[in-house]
Amino acid sequence: MKKSRGAVLKETKPGPERVGKVLREIGSRLQTAGVDRPQLESELILSQALSIPAAQLYLEPERILENSIRAQIESWTQERLTRKPLAYIIGKAWFREIELEINPAVLIPRPETELLVEQALRIIQSETAVKTILDLATGSGAIILSLARELEKSNPDLQFFASDISGRALSLARKNAQRLRLGDRIQFRAGDWFQPFPGQKFHLIVCNPPYISEEELPGLMPEVSRYEPKLALNGGKQGLELIQKVLAEAPDHLDRPGRLVLEIGMGQAEKLPEIKTSLKLQKLVKDFAGIDRIAIFRL
Ligand SMILES: C[S@@+](CC[C@H](N)C(=O)[O-])C[C@H]1O[C@@H](n2cnc3c(N)ncnc32)[C@H](O)[C@@H]1O
Q1: Would you say 66 and 16 are in contact if contact means Cβ atoms under 8 Å apart?
Q2: What DSSP element (H or E) covers 219?
Q3: Whether residue 138 has its Cβ less than 6 Å from ligand 1
């Protein structure tokens, strides 16, 4: 049967695609793939591709997507359907007030870690003797860069240090510092825990160490178990090995008032009293889920 001209056009050239429809369609594909918070991720994919704030998507649901933008959205969606985290796909993440470049050599900074920064800020603001701050195991630099940015105006004389054993993580942290124009505010050193700081003491140490137990690792969501660096996650048999190491070595690197702000995993707060250290546990802070997440120690 001979096809009409209109029918031929319909088959070969799909109509323009609009923001509202694509937003819903991608949300539903991500949901089917088991992605957590699919609508939010769909918003992020579209807003990043269009370089507009997510809220604007809802103000312009009829906006037509140009072919190149539609292709970018599809390519990111395809990658995300493999469960690769969006931060690794688009190469960025947001943490408190800063945007960070992210790659698979570093852990994607978590909202819980924003609480660690909040606690560190409280200490710095209430203890005027705090002048030197070390971020041990800095990864992308999220913690130290947030502190440096948020204290830039109020405490310009603070000295910031950061270290990581991963050379790739450290070079990304340095790059992030430069992008945020904080490159000359932070001294970055490579090495195993306190090894890059022989005999050096700090008033405040902040640390989000790897704290997942070897047993738990394979059971985590694919975004984490398949894609995030094991070096950033694996806390040994019980998940506590590196926490123990930091607690054992930190006292030699603290100067009064001497505080250590440490992120810990679910169920680890109860185990802290069994860990050998001369530091005193001063306070535990719960995260949004009511889990003891931040442990503050003092000399
Ligand atoms: C949980 S991630 C924290 C990253 C970043 N501070 C954050 O909160 O997003 C742990 C970091 O510990 C680093 N790390 C692992 N073993 C280490 C070691 N022996 N010495 C120093 N850093 C280490 C990893 O490279 C990783 O960047």
Answers
A1: no
A2: none
A3: yes
In the reported structure, the alpha carbon of residue 270 is separated from the centroid of ligand 1 by a whole-number distance in angstroms of: 23
Report the separation in Å between the CA atom of 83 and the middle of ligand 1, taken as the mean of its atom positions: 23
- Over the chain, what is the mean pLDDT? 95
Buried b (16+ CB within 10 A) or exposed e, 273-288: eebebebebeeebebe
| Residue 15: per-residue pLDDT | 75
Is 165 a pocket residue for ligand 1 (Cβ < 6 Å)? Answer: yes
- pLDDT tens digits for 107-144? 999 999 999 999 999 999 999 999 999 999 999 999 99
Ligand 1 centre distance from Cα of residue 181 (Å): 23
Is 193 touching ligand 1 by the criterion CB < 6 Å? Answer: yes
169 in contact with ligand 1, CB cutoff 6 A: yes
CB neighbours of residue 127 within 10 Å: 15
Distance 164 CA to ligand 1 centre (A): 6
Which two structure tokens, joined as six digits, stand for 104? 């698979």
Domain segments of the chain as ranges = 5-82, 97-298
- Tokens 């902040």 belong to 206
- pLDDT at 4 exceeding the cut of 60: no
**What is the second-level CATH architecture of the domain 5-82?**
Orthogonal Bundle (1.10)
Q: What is the mean pLDDT of residues 190-206?
A: 98
**Residue 10 reports pLDDT greater than 60:** no
**What pLDDT, on the 0 to 100 scale, is given for residue 132?**
98
Q: Say which residue the tokens 């096809």 belong to.
A: 3
Check if 170 has its Cβ closer than 6 Å to any atom of ligand 1: no
Give the global pTM. Answer: 0.94
What is the CB-side half-sphere exposure of residue 103 using CA atoms within 13 A? 11
Q: Classify 97-298 by CATH class.
A: alpha beta
User: How is residue 24 written in tokens?
Assistant: 């819903």
| Nearest partner of 121 among 103, 110, 111, 133, judged by Cα | 133
For residue 200, what are its two tokens? 């050096």
Q: How far apart are the first and last CA of the chain?
A: 87
